[in-house]
Amino acid sequence: MISLYDKGVFLVNGKNIIVNDLNVNFNKNEARKGTITYNILEKHNISNDMENLKLKFDCLASHDITYVGIIQTARASGLKKFPIPYVLTNCHNTLCAVGGTINEDDHMFGLSAAKKYGGIYVPPHQAVIHQYMRENMAGCGKMILGSDSHTRYGALGTIAIGEGGGELVKQLLNKTYDIKYPEVIGVYLKGKPKKGIGPQDVALTIIKAVFKNGFVKNKIMEFIGEGISNLNVEFRNGIDVMTTETTCLTSIWKTDIEVKEYLREHDRDKDYNELSPKNIAYYDGMIVIDLDEIESMIALPFHPSNVYSIKELQNNLIEILTKVEREAFEQGIQIDLKSKIRDGSLFGEQGIIAGCAGGTYDNIVDVTDIIKNKSIGVDFSLNVYPSSQSTSIELNKNGSMARMMESGAVIRTAFCGPCFGAGDTPANGQLSFRHTTRNFPNREGSKPGEGQISMVALMDARSIAATAINGGKLTAATDIEVEFTKPKYNFNRTVYKNKVYEGFKKIEDSTLIYGPNIVDWPELPKLPNDILLKICAVINDPVTTTDELIPSGETSSYRSNPMRLAEFTLSRRAPDYIENAKEIKKIEDERKSGKNPLTGKLKEIFYKIKKIDKEINILEIGIGSTIYANKPGDGSAREQAASCQKILGGWANIAKEYATKRYRSNLINWGMIPFVIEDKINFESGEYIYIKDIKSAIENKSQMIKGYLISIKSEDIKIINLKLDSLTDTEMNILLEGCLINYYKRT
Q: Which of 131, 147, 177, 41 is nearest to 86 (CA)?
């Protein structure tokens, strides 16, 4: 079904895979230029150095959890106008249901910013961010940067990268996205999916194969092979958007007549170019997928990589569910999945088909064919969110909406809520089958810290529909009889013409509209010469998600108020972190006001520091907080995961490794040092780390920095080695200045 080549390979004539060994005479460096990736990156690189890229993007995209903070950051850094098209969508806090007026206040801010700086504003309920970008902005050979982790338009020939807001700020200030040339992994598709198999089945199969082993981490996945021609563009989009869950940097696909027809249908013939690897192309690794062998798949709680075939799960229910319950318990979450077994089968209470992954036209018309003329019943709910108004219009015209509603499905508007915990939250203890992007804890809207917990399993829309007509009994779409009608899609742009503000290059003499929750960034300090860090949280889970660092869902309503949002930092994973961080920040504020730390709560710690360096000036040691996590930053691109720590006085993170490049970038952009530690050290919350001459170390780009681990409980002072992976000049300067606002304001 799926094979991995962990050594470099050459692809010859687009179909022959040859492993790179001593018997191969191809020139690797030249063949490296034969990938689709190389040619797109080369056209967008302004450094004249293909090893150290400085990229300029064609377009930017943000939604209403991120764009206020980005624009506020850019304003503080000197923004005058949007230099490239910047699309502001309103698909996350769309319902305006939490926090009084603050969500709609943000929308009004977004519209006023689009008018003031020349942006594109997509009102609430019109389209989810990625569907709008597919329909209107993506094109062959383009590059798009978005402040959402699922920014992926590779199937349309676009290298699209999801990053934290700081990277978009750089583009708005005419700066560059700086990165070393990434490794490129070929994804060779062959064969054709069998009836009932959908894009989520293929995507979950890939995630299962490559997430835990880091096979594609921070690399670019390039989809090639004859099997692509057997997938329509919506099917490709559904696979492509889920590549985020592999931890790859981004993706790109070979294009063909299907892409040409898709762009033509969307009135964008000019955006088509045929993209294909050259006769000889070198890949740093290869994934080969036989689409014929893909089965109906399911990702059990609480991660998209926790994947089984539905058949395997059905045959081993007790064993697998017991394993999942045990893994959840190790994360501090108690669930009872086995209670969902009735008469030897797994039952759920809810089905959701939504967003950029599930809510596409192709998925929904197939769902209609499965459920039409049948009853979903009262014990199972099925809620369907078409991904755009244009999609809804066509589903209405061809009768799909009426047939779904007659069967008992509920049709929603274009909204990302079920994907991040702000829509259709199940009841406590319920199991939801979802064609969305993630199934992290509380991603469905529950609050585990308050004793609420429901569970999400990811599945393809077709299997969700099959489950719905069986009263919630887990059913693979390959196990039912259905005739898929595949009605043609006719794109309707009228709704966008009537509702979307197309303001690029149309600067209006207008002012920004603020609401009471929209607050400027507080002044953030520069990096001092020496720092003392209190470890305010220790997380020993194998992976820590962005959602655990800063919760999603209703919490995101406060994203435009940095201080208010910071009150939720780590609240659902390490509830005492906020109090610990605030306490140490108070001591730092006192130090800056002139109070001698030797007379305060840290007296013993500072006497120990005096033993390390008798000449040290205690008043000049910056005092702050840090956290330790084995592998933080999986999942969302939300920069608030880092900025909230900074607001509370954070100076660094310490990790064995960072789950994603984007989380490391978020840390740096907010002046947080991304330390890596290779030695096995059992850190404890409440310990301190003293780092002498940290400013000089960063100025000199030192990759190994000595720290002193100090405990109140013991007289011992342990020397630890903190690794700091290579920094670009810009990253170095941002860390020295304390954050990107300070740096760009100065420059």
A: 147
* Residue 604 pLDDT exceeds 90: no
pLDDT class of 557 with cuts at 50, 70, 90: confident
CB contact at 8 A, 441 and 430: no
Here the tokens at position 653 are 């993170």
Q: Residue 157's closest CA among 39, 278, 281, 288?
A: 39
Q: Is the dihedral of CA 616, 619, 621, 627 positive or negative?
A: positive
* Partners of 55 in the β-ladder: 45, 177
Angle at CA of residue 591, ends 585 and 595, nearest 5°: 130
Residues of the chain with CATH 3.20.19.10: 530-746
**Residue 746 — pLDDT band, cuts 50, 70, 90?**
confident
Name residue, tokens 């108690």. Answer: 334
CA distance 575 to 537: 9
Contact between 73 and 166 under an 8 Å Cβ cutoff? The reply is yes
Tokens of 170: 């750089």
Rounded to whole angstroms, how far apart are CA atoms 503 and 508?
9
Whether the Cβ atoms of residue 394 and residue 490 lie closer than 8 Å to each other: yes
Task: Tell me whether residue 412 is exposed, middle or buried, using C-beta atoms within 10 angstroms of its C-beta: 0 to 12, 13 to 18, 19 or more.
Answer: buried
Distances (CA, A) of 152 to 155, 162, 237, 356: 8, 7, 8, 10
What's the rounded Cα separation, in Å, for the pair 640 and 648? 12
User: What is the assigned CATH class of domain 530-746?
Assistant: alpha beta
Phi/psi at 463 (5° precision)? -70, -30
Is the predicted pLDDT of residue 599 greater than 80, yes or no? Answer: no
Written as one letter, the residue type at 402 is A
Q: Which of 170, 190, 187 is nearest to 178 (CA)?
A: 170
Q: Which helix (H) or strand (E) element contains residue 652? A: strand 650-655
pLDDT at residue 249, rounded to an integer: 96
Q: What top-level class would CATH report for the domain 297-492? A: alpha beta
pLDDT score, position 594? 86
Q: Quick one: 2-39+182-293 is in which CATH superfamily?
A: Aconitase, Domain 2 (3.40.1060.10)
CATH number of 59-175: 3.30.499.10
Residue range(s) occupied by CATH 3.30.499.10 in the chain: 59-175, 297-492
Tell me the C-alpha distance between 568 and 546, whole Å: 12
Q: Which is nearest to 337 in space by CA: 400, 424, 430?
A: 430
User: Dmax of the chain from CA atoms?
Assistant: 83
Instruction: Name which of 685, 682, 691, 648 is nearest 533 in CA terms.
Output: 691
Cα 581 to Cα 521, 578, 598, 689, distances in angstroms: 19, 5, 20, 14
